[in-house]
Amino acid sequence: MAALNKAWSTMNRVSPEAPAAVVTGDTEEAGETVASEPEPASQPFLVYVSDGSESSEVEKIEKVILFDNKVCLGLWAFQTVRMTPEQVEADPLLAKAGKSVPRFIFVSHDYKDVNALEGNGLSSSKVYDEMKKFAKKAYKTNFDKNVRG
């Protein structure tokens, strides 16, 4: 499965930029401004928060969890992003999603749902279960069926 591993991109933030206000023009003198929803992303996000250390938890993630067949294949349905704890703390969407390092943070494609897996939640089966939940919100097809073949 190593040949199928997906590359992790780096980003300074996952949160969408504040959308521009829309002037509705309901009155002649002054238009009413309404904040618009951010444009949905093409895929849900899976953020891997790591400080670059070589701890046993990092080794477990990189040599066991990410090499699990279902997780490895399922990653292709996500925008995979690697961030430092400092970058996560500065991102308003991710800042409250867990505190442990390393951890995974899942973000729905519409930016409405965020969930972190950390500590004892870091196992192949728990990561895959969370992938199924977030993929179900983003795709019409059956994620689990597509991954298992």
What does this structure look like?
This protein has 149 residues and is an alpha/beta fold. Helices cover 28% and strands 19% of the residues. It has five helices and seven strands; from the N terminus they run ββββααβαββαα. The chain has helices at 56-63, 69-74, 85-90, 124-138, 143-148, and strands at 9-10, 21-23, 33-35, 45-49, 79-83, 103-107, 114-118. A five-stranded mixed β-sheet has the order 1-5-4-6-7. A two-stranded antiparallel ribbon has the order 2-3. Strand 6 (103-107) and strand 7 form a beta hairpin. The longest helix has 15 residues, at 124-138. The two termini are 15 Å apart. 23% of the residues are buried. The mean pLDDT is 88.
Task: Kindly list the characteristics that best describe this protein.
19% strand; alpha/beta; 149 residues
